[in-house]
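Worked example 2:
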Amino acid sequence: MLKRIISLALALAMSVTAFADELAIKPDAPSRYTVAKGDTLWGIAGRYLSSPWQWPRLWRMNREQVRNPHWIYPGDVLALDYVNGQPRLSLASDAPREVKLSPQARVEELDQAIASIPAEAIEPFMVRPLIVNPEQFALGPKLVAGPDERLSLSPGDRVYASGVNETGSWQAYRLGKTLVDPDSQQALGVEAVYGGDLVVDKLRADIQTLRIRSVAGEVLVGDRLVRAPKESFVNYVPHPAEDGMHGKIISSYQGVDGAAQYSTVAVNLGSAAGVEPGMVFGIFKKGGAIEIADAAGKKRQAQLPTEQAGKLFIYRVFDKVSYGLVLDSAGAIYVGDGIAPPDAE
């Protein structure tokens, strides 16, 4: 009898846990949805889920599939159904995707796949700034001279460098601000500020000739040169940050009055802490201290509660620093605001 009671209690506990763990599908979630050009994974997830970061569960993805997801394209039809009472989203079997076999067509097809988050909001930050070690950075190729002994350089200028060992495209950088952990006061890394793009004209053993193709801000004699990276496509699956991941916003890049929707911020967590692209954090604002009085008029200090003020989608990760895009913000986000798993209280 005791065993039956224990078994029943365990079954009830498991049932409650499963119920609490069910995905919250929105009441107006479409049973079928045709992906449109301009859609993002975050936006589509938000059509179905109150918690868009739970997309992998709705799509029935395992850990490997989260890291190497299938592409989704405009024109794909998504179908919502239920298996054993649990929701599942998949490509509709009655709307097969047209397969193009030529390599050229495949390249164009990949370019048309939908991104995780709005590409235009993060394009300037996908390859810059860099987080660098100053000592190693100082050993890189360097711009040593420009035309007419000018220090500030312009598009079209022919310039000279030392240490460039490959043809092709390069980028000019210089050391910027040091990112500091607000709690430990330890340096997390130094940002290298992007100056512009250059292309090699002539590759010689001693001095190399390059031409400036574009300038963002300024390119200066003395800048260090870094090989231009390949263009990156953001196809990271939104998934929740893991329990125990807590950090703070340490830098904001758009607006002096605080970051808003689709602004980029840097946080004091990186790959060393287990952070990876696609992770979603909640942004939390600590409540201020206020003075309240009781019925007798006696005053005391009270602390307002911490409130969630938005979500942060991580799209670029270094060892101790990550960059993320502010989503679903309810007001301005400031340096010092906390981050934690999105379901944290």
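The chain has a mean pLDDT of 85. The radius of gyration is 25 Å.
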